[in-house]
Amino acid sequence: MSGIGVLCKSSSSPFSLFPPSSFIPTSHSIKTFKTFTNNFNLLSSKLIFSTSSPRPRTMATEPSASNNNGVPEESSSSSSAPSASSAIDFLTLCHRLKATKRTGWIKRDIKGPESIADHMYRMGVMALITADIPGVNRDKCIKMAIVHDIAEAIVGDITPCDGVPKEEKNRREREALDQMCNLLGGGERAKEMNDLWMEYENNSTPEAKVVKDLDKVEMILQALEYETEQGRDLEEFFESTAGKFQTDLGKSWASEIASRRKKKEEK
Question: Which pTM value belongs to this model?
């Protein structure tokens, strides 16, 4: 608006809004005045438009689905995630994985034995640091590692020493997993957890074979650490996994652990 004020104050300018009284209009001055008036009106309209409140900009989005009452339904991305209430209920149940110690170490009187969650966490790290393997989805392995024992939040860590038949153990864990998926609210996240767990149990994919091997590797690595820290002989854990590794990765890491154990014993 300052530009308009300058034009109005300059009486000597041919573009003054109001010419002085001594000024004798000519055809040229009249034409100049009309030209200025038109330009002034145009400028004013532009300034008024520019100072008005801007219209809110909208982002093009896909139309959301509506139910029979015409009320938009939640998008697929939001409906796939659990509600806050379901998520917290589920995570509270998962606390048992942190509090429950692994049965095998308890029965061998290991001091401060690892929890189920400890075991699952290091397996997740193992999957994270593995080299790329053709035909194996590493991200899927990481997810499977943190899901494979999740049903133990309800049934606990059942081992062969407990005398529970394999079929009964699987039934209990299957039932527990269903309860946890329901607690999570169903949906895509629950289905993904269920599918990962089933693949692992059935040893039905390349990822499952890798994670099965990581499960055994983590156990014997932990056994070696307890032997070193507590002066124990945990040979039975090494014997229980001998010859049972399915992948080159598992065989390589197990061999490295065995080599370190042998060197320790030779000292």
Answer: 0.71
